[in-house]
Amino acid sequence: MAKLLTGTVASASGDKTIVISVVTRKTHPIYKKQYASTKRFMAHDEQNECKVGDKVSIMETKPISAKKRFKLNRVIEKADLTSEDLNIIKSDETSEKDAKEESR
């Protein structure tokens, strides 16, 4: 059976690709304290329907690319982003693209 993971969309800047952050709680083996561990997965989003902040479910599938091993199963909850949040996200994406172009 394929793995099902639930997390929030951290990035949706690629075409048909989203990055999901999955937070799991673990217990330290010696100190018995709980802590949060975050892992990021790349997933295939065929219709480009996800935005940053959406809560989604992803499903394991055959390798789609070098890093993509999951596809979007369903959108659980849409994000409530304000126009200010969207402007900040867009400015971050453009600054990342500019930095990549300058490094070439």
Question: How many structural domains in the coordinates?
Answer: 1
Query: CATH homologous superfamily name?
Result: Nucleic acid-binding proteins
Instruction: Give the overall average pLDDT.
Output: 89
Number of helices: 1
Which secondary-structure class do the elements indicate? alpha+beta
Net shape: globular
| Element-level helix/strand string | EEEEEH
Here the CATH topology equals: OB fold (Dihydrolipoamide Acetyltransferase, E2P)
Low-confidence spans: none
Give an account of the 3D structure.
The protein has about 100 residues and is an alpha+beta fold. It has one domain (about 5-80): OB fold (Dihydrolipoamide Acetyltransferase, E2P). The chain has one helix at about 85-104, and strands at about 5-10, 15-25, 35-45, 55-60, 70-75. Strands 1-2-3-5-4 form a five-stranded mixed β-barrel. Strand 1 (about 5-10) and strand 2 (about 15-25) form a beta hairpin. The model has no long low-confidence stretch (mean pLDDT about 90).
Can I get a quick summary?
The protein is of the alpha+beta class.
